[in-house]
Amino acid sequence: MIIDNNLKKLLARTMSAIESVDLTMEESAIAILDKNSRTNSEAVAKVEKQLIAIGRQLREEETDEGEKVADAVLNDDTTAAEALAPSIETLRERRNSLIKGRLELMRRNSQIARKKRQLQVSADTKIQVTLDPLVEELEKRQKAAANEIADIHAGISAISLCSNGHISARHRGQLSLEGLMGQLKLLPGERYINIPDEIAKALDVLKNKGPLARPLRTNQIGRW
Q1: The CATH number of domain 23-131, selected from 1.10.287, 1.20.1530, 3.10.20, 1.10.10
Q2: What is the C-alpha separation between 33 and 50, in angstroms, rounded?
Q3: 192, containing H or E segment
Q4: Which of 8, 18, 54, 179 has a 20 to 30 Å separation from 79 between CA atoms?
Q5: Which letter, b or e, does each residue of 42-59 get, where b requires 16 or more Cβ atoms within 10 Å of its Cβ?
Q6: Which tens digit of pLDDT belongs to each residue from 104-152?
Q7: Residue 20: which of 100, 167, 127 has the closest Cα?
Q8: Displacement of CA 118 from its chain's centroid (Å)
Q9: Domain with CATH 1.10.287 in the chain
Q10: Percent of all residues in the chain with a pLDDT value above 70, rounded to a whole number
């Protein structure tokens, strides 16, 4: 790409605009959110350790429950038998409360992640605004370059027809145009391309070279 004086000036203005962008608000907010997220994650880890411990305790209690109840009944200790079930139920209630707490902590972290994405979008938007003029200029040059490629391909294709050769060069041009012409591409998907006047004029000399020559008989070339 040729960096001319106009583009150099535009690049300098773009750099200055980027330097003036203030992202301190987004950075500060994200720092606070990250701290809260770490706190929540640490709490989730603690809850999971407690859930593992309670799960282990419950398995032990439930395994021994049958034997303990049977022994208590055989010994006519009704109070002891009735007391076993509430202790297990207490553990289950504690486990359910911990599960709910873990879900709430995870929900809060999801909210934090969503807020961080919004702040990132805010920062991206500020930067994008400074780059808009540069992108607009580069797109303009990109389209001009695409038009030039199309003109060059039309010229090579015309030469190929007149010489019955240079097939590889023409084919390479066709392949390049496939990515440039069509819907949502740089150039409209025209079926025919105009042959540049200067090339057509140069090939027009073939009209004077007798019946074996292949003079140009059209001012347009098919894309394919």
Answers
A1: 1.10.287
A2: 26
A3: strand 192-194
A4: 54
A5: ebbeebeeebeeeeeebe
A6: 999 999 999 999 999 999 999 999 999 999 999 999 999 999 999 999 9
A7: 127
A8: 15
A9: 23-131
A10: 88
Query: What's the angle, vertex CA 38, arms to CA 35 and CA 39, rounded to 5?
Result: 85
CA dist., res. 19 & res. 156, Å (int):
46
CB neighbour list of residue 76: distance below 8 Å, 6 or more residues apart: none
Helix (H, G, I), strand (E, B) or coil at 65: helix
Token pair 């001319």 is at which residue?
A: 4
Alpha-helical regions (H) of the chain? 5-19, 24-74, 78-163, 167-178, 197-203
Mean pLDDT of 148-175: 93
Instruction: Please choose, from the candidates 148, 147, 127, 136, the residue with its C-alpha nearest in 3D space to the C-alpha of residue 7.
Output: 136
CA distance 105 to 101: 6
Amino acid sitting at position 98: L
**Within 13 Å and on the Cβ side, how many CA atoms surround 60?**
8
In this structure, what token pair is assigned to residue 103?
A: 């879900």
CB of 18 closer than 8 Å to CB of 127: yes
